[in-house]
Specification:
Blueprint lengths: L1 H12 L9 E8 L6 H16 L1 H10 L2 E7 L5 E9 L3 H12 L12 H11 L8 E8 L9 H10 L3 E7 L6 H9 L6 E4 L5 H13 L5
C-alpha cells in the first residue's frame, strides 16, 4: 500500500509535458496616411482570411504558436490591437481570426515610421519568453517620413535574435521592395512584394505560411 501511495505521489509531482511554443509572430499593419479606408479593409480582410486558411491553422496549432497584431503609422502611433494569443487548438485560431475581422482601424492621417513599429514590437517579445523563434512581420506601402533610422531598429532586432520579414506594397509606384530589402528585414529575413493592396491577401497568406514553416532568407 505504501508503494502504491508513493507511486501516486510521484506521478502527481511529475511535471506535465506539453509542446513548447515554437514561434512567436507579430503581424504588423501599416495604417499611415497613404492607406485609405478601402485599402485598410483589404489588409484586415486579407489577414482574417489568412488566419482561417486550413494550412495556416494546422501550422499554428502544431507549433502552439503565439500570435499578436500591431497597427502602426507615425512616430508615436503604435497599437497592440490583438494581444498575444496562444494557438493550441482550431478554436483558438478561430477566435484569433474573429478578433482580426472585428479589428477597428487604430490611426488615421498619420506619418510613416517603420523604425518605431519595429522597436515597439521588439518590446512585446518579453511577454512570450518561452517561444523559440521570434518574428516580426511588417507590411507597408511607403518609405519613412518620420521617426528614427530604420536600419538602427533592424539592427536592434538582429542583436535580440528576432527575425524581421516584410510585405512591400507597391501601390504608389515607388521602389518599396528595395527599401524593405535594404533597411527593414534582418539578414535571415525575406520580402514578399504585393503590386497593389489587392494582392495583399494572397501575400500575407503565403508569408505567414512561410514564416511558420521556417523557410527564411
Amino acid at each position: 500500500m505504501f508503494k502504491t501511495f508513493a507511486i501516486a505521489i510521484s506521478i502527481a509531482l511529475s511535471p506535465v509535458i506539453t509542446n513548447a511554443c515554437d514561434t512567436a509572430l507579430i503581424l504588423t499593419i501599416d495604417v499611415s496616411n497613404s492607406v485609405d479606408t478601402g485599402e485598410f479593409k483589404l489588409q484586415a480582410d486579407g489577414l482574417t482570411a489568412a488566419l482561417r486558411a486550413p494550412e495556416i491553422v494546422d501550422a499554428m496549432v502544431r507549433q502552439e504558436a503565439a500570435i499578436a497584431v500591431v497597427q502602426w503609422s507615425g512616430e508615436t502611433r503604435q497599437e497592440l490591437s490583438i494581444p498575444w494569443t496562444r494557438i493550441r487548438s482550431s478554436l483558438d485560431a478561430a477566435r484569433l481570426a474573429a478578433a482580426a475581422e472585428q479589428m477597428p482601424r487604430a490611426f488615421v492621417l498619420s506619418d510613416t515610421a517603420p523604425a518605431e513599429a519595429i522597436l515597439f514590437s521588439l518590446d512585446l517579445f518579453s511577454q512570450v519568453p518561452d517561444c523559440k523563434n521570434k518574428v516580426i512581420d511588417i507590411s507597408g506601402d511607403g518609405t519613412p517620413n518620420s521617426g528614427s533610422e530604420t536600419r538602427d531598429a533592424r539592427n536592434a532586432a538582429e542583436r535580440a535574435g528576432v527575425t524581421v520579414n516584410a510585405i512591400a506594397i507597391e501601390s504608389m509606384g515607388l521602389a518599396i521592395t528595395g527599401f524593405y530589402k535594404g533597411a527593414v528585414i534582418t539578414r535571415n529575413g525575406f520580402v514578399i512584394t504585393a503590386r497593389t493592396h489587392r494582392e495583399y491577401p494572397d501575400a500575407i497568406r503565403r508569408k505567414i505560411l512561410r514564416e511558420l514553416s521556417h523557410v527564411i532568407g
